[in-house]
Amino acid sequence: MPSIVWHPGRSDAAIRTAAISCLHTELKVPEITASVITGDLEKLVTLVTGLLEEEDRRTRLLALRCLSALSHLPEPGTLPVQLVHTSVTELLKRLDDTDAEVRQTAAATFPALVSALGPDYSGEQWRGHVEHFARTLLVFLDDTDEALQERVYEALLAAGHLNTAVVCEQASVERDRQRSPTRCDRLLRHWQ
Question: How far apart are CA 36 and CA 49, in angstroms?
Answer without folding.
Answer: 20
